[in-house]
Here is the input.
Amino acid sequence: MSIKRQHDMMAAFSMASMTDVIFLLLIFFMVTSTFVFPTALEVNLPQSSEQTAIKPATTVYIDAEQNLFAAFGGEEPQPMNPSALITFLTLAREQDPEGYIALYADEKVPYGKVVEVLNIGAEHNLKMVLATKPAPKSAMPHNIEE
Here is the structure.
């Protein structure tokens, strides 16, 4: 006499247990992994509540080729080298001792060049302000492109 099975084999595969295993593995790796924080310098930016309505009379421009230009008042900006810039800014301070010097730099200028010009001002006790808006087109030197 032959023994016959009462249950037929199912051809379908149940994924319920597989998803449980995957979720357990996911939770395991999330709990055991360490979070990697990128190493960066912490920068403490200065805070100020004071705003000034003074427009800088002296402007310094750095174009994309890192050429320096300077102008006092509404004059046309003149090309400068670093030593001539020091002389120009010292004379501008004598004409307007309470005035600020605005520094405009093209977006392609490396930050090191901007810091170099700001250091020139700091060494000579000049009040320099880094402009965050693009220079007005009417004030820009004719060979500086935006």
The beta strands are 58-62, 68-72, 78-80, 101-105, 128-130. The chain is about 30% helix and 15% strand.
